[in-house]
């Protein structure tokens, strides 16, 4: 379990890093936290000729409050995201999701942007990025572009990133302070990748009906998903047994999860319905409470 | 929690029974231990192994030319390079109907499982050796195979070892009474198919070996992460054509085994052969992928079993037909009978069951060989029996504690001979059951369960009572018919010229804390300070005959040897002191390293006595002077029962089918406790391992013979968040009839936990009519069981 031979370079600036990528292209790999890349290299599933270590580039280890949005720098570690008080109050659904991302030691090094670049189909962060209108800042030596998360995440472990490009940061929208949220995940052991996970934010109107729901899921498809079909189904409704039953049915009809050794597709479809029901209820209860406070 | 109370033990020894911190922990917990991978030598080279990716194939050709282009590569070897340099290890047995498969250093002619070592690369670094692996081309001719035991057992199944003439290399049967008749007339019967799927022992340290050839003495030293260095020395010296002077096997600090390092491995032979061939130190350290693919695995029996009982819940008869999937080889030295035969020899458990018919067939399949695993056989047999007991209780509406109470072997029945011939000596079978019930306040626990159920929650509780045979003496071999004596243990204890004590044993501690517990015993028996004792173990050169540490033997046999040897040495010390002090030995006491006289106020320290014996010639008459050295072998002859009841309550999430353990208690009788802290640690660790077996761990081979749980991301070991608080009740009933009064207790947790959890989940799902008979009870399996029950049809598997 030793990696194949590689060269190692440690640029001091983003420009240097981009120059290196321009020079080596597909032979090079960025290393951020290394928590996904190193296992793959040790298994010799990937054999980059050059590792470009961005860990000493100043200015990337940041989480910036931009008012309407939050910007996660390329080296924002999972631990920073999990403990950031602004995120806890302004994007509580992300805060809750972070409890399910790996374990302490992995969180100390793993990065928000690295997780999105890795695009594991059962990871939590890509789902949150999709759900909260994430914009991925992509740079190469010759151009800069910003991709919506839905365009960036292409498939299982596949993104729209070109060989000479790196992600310099990702922005996501802050949640409406009036909205309720919930995050439900089930995995075989705490900290494992999700068998299924559901994130929900929603508001309620004066009649107690659901408004502006956003629903993300992970672990049940080729990529993380924003569930616009379910959002449409529950928008304007009151969450009762019938409605949640319809949600389950919709998921059952539309999801095509994998079967792997941890769970079959049938179970994952069932689990999705259960977790979606729990998350919608919990988010709704929170939204009602917030609305109640506002009405007082 | 009930702490053991020793106040009634008369003349309680000073250190045995105390919660003493483990003396080995200072080095192990501060990173100063020395494991095989830490052993360095000048000129050392490294091995990487190309393993089979085929379940069954003939090796046509190996082309390694391209590998030599990798810088640092020294040599590439397949089995043809060692022909004539070694003999295979053959795990013989006196058992009938058994075929002993030979173990070679590398696959010879054929490969028989995915993961079998085929080609070895030797290089200046492990990196270079692994680089070379990709450049080796092996030409295989695929051969047919039957991956599932139910297919491999058939007469027309493709043969894995043609010389055997069959895949069924182990057959055994136990019969007592007219079982047919009992079942024909019994008022009630329950039955089912029970299965503990394959496990990998997964110790924290992977298998690691380093062999060094000493040109001067024409001798080999093998550093091996092994818990049987003595066995390895004896067999390897034969395979390599060396006298046993020429081979020393040292197991330095060993990071766990759980049975996985308790057999001989091809890789051990390989590094020895390479070291001799190359005349350089050769190191091989398995990585996690290799150990998951090629370390000895566990269980994997298909058990069809049935229990007959009357209206009072009394067991009348038991029968079982078992197919054990032993993998591709019979493992050295234990043979493929170790795990399989124990399933039927322990199936009746701690219960009185007069009529019994148990049959096992051990069948070869293209998978890694099974071998010892903490609990051996009994995790499977206990799962089957304890499920049957609960099914019986449910059938006649009897409380599961009550049905056990009615059938456990009682005080007045000991010694009790079970149908397969195991003798249970005095052990607290019933007291353990009552202890578990008392600890969790069983009636209140039932009320709590029922209250939670009334809220619609799926809550259940489960018992597992079992007994195991530990500390087995020379009368019985640990594995059926095995020609190696495992029933004795030798200690050599000496006091040197400076007065310190060196105690050498044949055991090989690999996490049990034997350096501490054996020193506790010696300190008490000899009367010296614990700080003055060093315990040596894990080295084939220490005592004339040794095997190692396995089968819950070391506290009983090692402790017994420590006791009798210390007593012999103490007598010598007192004789020398008597001469020096001009006193009668009968008037002398030895405590805290000091001899005192009851007839005078004289005293002498051990240090002073040692000085007189070894350095101050003339102080003791020449013809009466004795070296302060004593060696003795202890043989408990029979084995001793260790018994326990586990009780747990758990909850199944009706949506996710996740299982959460709410309460857990282990009530156990391990005889006299040497160190309660170590005993508690063994129970906690073993229960955690049992929880892994019950809920998480599973080695899975697909239809192509590939192992699909190939890394620790897929082979799920329990982690801290999976383990509940585990309460422990120690019952010290009548002590067993051996020297120290000790019973072996390192394995019990893995025996009881899977059955207790299966029973508790079955209880939680009883309203749906679901029985959990196959472990691990994964969410996906429970989902399928519940769905099938709701649709009233059997689950597809
Ligand atoms: C035991 C364990 C458990 C885990 N459990 C979970 C879990 O439950 N949920 C979860 O979401 N994750 C889990 N992870 C993965 C963890 O979150 C990783 O840290 C994360 O997926 C990748 O982030 P990283 O910074 O470590 O990326 P790296 O490993 O450094 O890189 C991953 C990939 O992204 C590329 N990359 C990284 N940064 C950039 C960039 N700025 N621009 C372009 N490409 C880039 C790399 O080239 C590489 O291809 C687990 C990991 C481990 C080891």
TrEMBL record, chain A:
The keyword Transport does not apply. One of its GO terms (molecular function) is oxidoreductase activity. The keyword Glycoprotein does not apply. Gene3D superfamilies: 3.30.465.10, CO dehydrogenase flavoprotein, C-terminal domain (3.30.390.50), Uridine Diphospho-n-acetylenolpyruvylglucosamine Reductase, domain 2 (3.30.43.10). Keywords: FAD, Flavoprotein, Oxidoreductase. InterPro entries: CO_DH_flav_C (IPR005107), CO_DH_flav_C_dom_sf (IPR036683), Diverse_Substr_Oxidored (IPR051312), FAD-bd_PCMH (IPR016166), FAD-bd_PCMH-like_sf (IPR036318), FAD-bd_PCMH_sub1 (IPR016167), FAD-bd_PCMH_sub2 (IPR016169), Mopterin_DH_FAD-bd (IPR002346). Residues 1-177 form the FAD-binding PCMH-type domain. PANTHER family: XANTHINE DEHYDROGENASE SUBUNIT C-RELATED. This is Xanthine dehydrogenase family protein subunit M.
TrEMBL record, chain B:
The keyword Oxidoreductase applies. Keywords: Molybdenum, Oxidoreductase. One of its GO terms (molecular function) is oxidoreductase activity. Gene3D superfamilies: Aldehyde oxidase/xanthine dehydrogenase, a/b hammerhead (3.90.1170.50), Aldehyde oxidase/xanthine dehydrogenase, molybdopterin binding domain (3.30.365.10). The keyword Membrane does not apply. SMART domains: Ald_Xan_dh_C (SM01008). Residues 30-144 form the Aldehyde oxidase/xanthine dehydrogenase a/b hammerhead domain. This is Molybdopterin-dependent oxidoreductase. It comes from Frigidibacter albus. It holds the Pfam family MoCoBD_2.
